[in-house]
Amino acid sequence: ITRRAGLDITDILLSALKRNDSLTRTLLPRILELISSTNELETVSTFELASRTYVEKIALFDVTTLRELMKNIIKNLMVHRKLYTESDIKIYNNLTAKSLSFIKEAIESEKQECAIIYDSFFDVYDCNNSDLYQCIYVLATMRNRIGLHSSYYSNMLTRSDLLERVYAIEDFDVDASSAGPDLFKLDAVLMFFIEYAANLLELHYKKTVDFLAKIIKNLKSENVIHSHKILENCIAKYRNILKSIPSSVQSSFEDWCQRLPLEKITLCVIKQYPEKSSVTTVKALSILLSVFESKPILKEVENWHTSILSNYHRVETRHMSFLTDCLTVAVRYLTDADVKSTILEGVNLKGVRNERVGIKFCTRFIHVLVPFLNRILLEPGLEECCSILDDIVRFYVRKRSLDASEVLILVDKLWPVYEARTNFHQKRRLLYNMSCLPKKLGPDSNPLRWVADQLASDTSRECKTSLVTVLPSGEGFSACYAQFASSCLPATLAEVRGGARAALRAALDALATNGDLKLLDIVLTLADSDDTRGWWDEAMACCAASLARSERMEMYEAAYRRCWGGLTLGVCQRIMVPLLRYATPAFCERFFSTTIQDLLRKLRLKPKVSAASLSLYHKCVVDRIRALTLLQVAFEK
What is the pTM (predicted TM-score) of this model? Predict the structure, then answer.
């Protein structure tokens, strides 16, 4: 039977064990031990299932059993596991985290001190058959998962020869392209130095800093690419503690850079055909330059951007990532003036139609150059280049940047130039992309003042309809929405035809997106205008379903107030019912707790029928229908 099949059988067995305490007490600890010794894809999920069962049935086990189980699991994690591939490493990392979290939970359930977990670790470590890298990875994960006082860790690290063995490590920098274990070695070392940074600096400051310098100096490019996140975290950790990167570590990075074959890479850029080793080297250099505070003197890379500008359009698509990495490195050595001259390349070529070499270049590598563009596009002489604005905004939208204040300022300041040099559809496209950013332009910004002017002008209904979807929400835009309604929307739903159809759809789309209260009021007015049936019934219900996800009480209150205005059921059926139906039960409970008395009061009203009070009677009947409709939704929820 294979190990994978054994895990499948174990899943079935675990379900049966839940119903038999005797078998659980006998078999479950051994099952957990065996699972922790495997390295299959299903290992982690099966271990989670078994560990949950153990915690649920923990009353069946004594402390001695738990300690023995803990020791055996830790042993399985530390004693020469075979980690040959990235998949092996990923499974091992996940299993280590799950195992230690389970041990911590079980120890705490038994009211034991978590320090005994470290005792078990050193019991296994002292057996002299454990793997050093797996040991320090387990120890690092313990620090991450099991919180004890910092002073405990300082004492714990001096309990054995472990630190001396770590500081003596030399072989984590072997060729990463040949096998998997060396990738794990570097990760394990870096994890250990991250988790115990403060303790290591306190115990052995010089040894710790020298060891970090040795790591950086001997890094292979493959290691940098594979471990870039954890490497970045490690350097950031020590920078934060020491307030700067130690000079010896910085010097090691500079030594590493000086050994790079930059002339060979430059030839690859010019020839447009990079070798594999050059691709890896440039990628690693790009990563490390982003990690370290200062950049070493690398004269060779200062002209890479001009070579890329001349050749990028002839490079095969599969090699563009190499040029991107080269440019990422090169821009760290460029000034604003260098980038400005690049942008202006070819803009004013006489006799060459539509030749804008620099602008096309910036558009292609916008993700690399955008920090420069945010600054230099505001400088005089770059009016011809305002078309790059579209690409900059799209970059921020794709990036889903939470802080897009730079691009908001840029668009606002460049708008007068952009407006004069673009047509209506280009401006509308830019504004639509701006509306996708988490931060919005204000009502006093140049672009949105232009929108307000368009809505108030004699611009066609089609153009106004396309603009309403780019407006943000807020009181500052109420006048814009009112202007749109007066010029583009009819007074009643029965009159919705022709261009008004698109205008109503646009209003509903905008409301579903931004939830503006003024726009909601406009839609509620239309919904209440008459009971004519049409496509708008489903469209309004879909809009209300989108609004329901936000669960904004002020929207529900506004719709509820409008339910009782006229003699139609439009607001109630088209807006209020979908709002409630798509809200969570908890939110509906909150809403009805504030309205239930009003609904019951309306049901108790019984006006007398007479010729003089016919309209009042009609209103009472409609109100009772509304109240019963809403109460039906309440009971359904």
Answer: 0.76
